[in-house]
Model the fold of this input.
Amino acid sequence: MWLLAEDRGLLPVFKMNADGSGFTKAYSAGTSSSLDAGPGTVVFLNETFSRPAELFVLDSKTGNTRQLTHLNDELLAKLDFGKVESLTFTGAGDRQIQQWLIYPPGYDPAKNTRCCNFSTAGRTRWSATLLATAGTHTCSPRRVTSSHG
Done:
């Protein structure tokens, strides 16, 4: 069986046996969605903080994964992206809050930088990164679920 499950603020592709055993990550880069499995292959969309969603295929026998589409490669090659950190802090009610902190490109800690709190119920990686490329720190907090740790 192939499935997507949240893990530390990302959505990797997992595989497991029908009885629930053998639960392991098969592809962990970025966040995946729209998974479809067929004989010998698993196809899914995947996005990262530095790339919007593209189509990927995973060979279910070997575990090898490759990107099928490269719709944005030319544009992405022209963009500069800042570093991305995952932070966890204690919020109201002693709940653990995981937050993505996206630095603007060329960040200089000696200079003041604006910060945008970017909250959404959906996927945020690509949109939040675009805000940061405009010279703004971008914070995307989210409540940590049982999938953290």
User: Anything to note?
Assistant: The chain has two domains: 2-74, 79-143. Residues 4 and 24 are 11 Å apart (CA to CA). Residues 145-149 have pLDDT under 50 and may be disordered. The chain is about 10% helix and 40% strand.
